[in-house]
Design brief:
A 4-stranded antiparallel β-sheet has the order 2-3-1-4, with no helix packed on it. 34% of the residues lie in helices and 26% in strands. By secondary structure, the chain is α+β, with helices and mostly antiparallel strands. It has a single domain, classed as Alpha-Beta Plaits (2-Layer Sandwich), CATH 3.30.70. The chain has helices at residues 15-30, 57-74, and strands at residues 2-9, 39-44, 47-51, 84-90.
């Protein structure tokens, strides 16, 4: 398993529109082969940290061909700037249980 960890700051205004955009983006992201889910952390001061596990790096890279432009169109307008890749690499421990 592979996971990028990204950090972004969201604009305080337009939260309803952001939630709709996240829902639309999430639906398409969830259809991408190899996508495992998302952990989104409210780190305070409008900062969001996301952990995005994929089956492997290849699945992530392939999905970015679709998701990159979609993210730029739907989500980035609600952010103070582009999201930053904080870390990425193979997952070494996975104890998250599904319900």
């Amino acid at each position: 398993m592979y996971a990028p960890i990204r950090e972004a700051t969201v604009k305080p205004e337009g939260q309803d529109q952001l939630q709709r955009a996240l829902q639309e983006f999430g639906t398409i992201r969830g259809q991408q082969p190899g996508f495992r889910g998302i952990l989104s952390i409210d780190a305070g001061n409008a900062c969001r940290v996301t952990v995005l596990p994929w089956d492997d790096l290849a699945a992530h890279q392939t999905a970015q061909l679709t998701l990159g432009p979609l993210f730029a169109r739907l989500i980035e307008p609600h952010m103070t700037g582009p999201s930053a890749l904080a870390y990425e690499g193979p997952v070494t421990v996975d104890t998250i249980r599904t319900r």
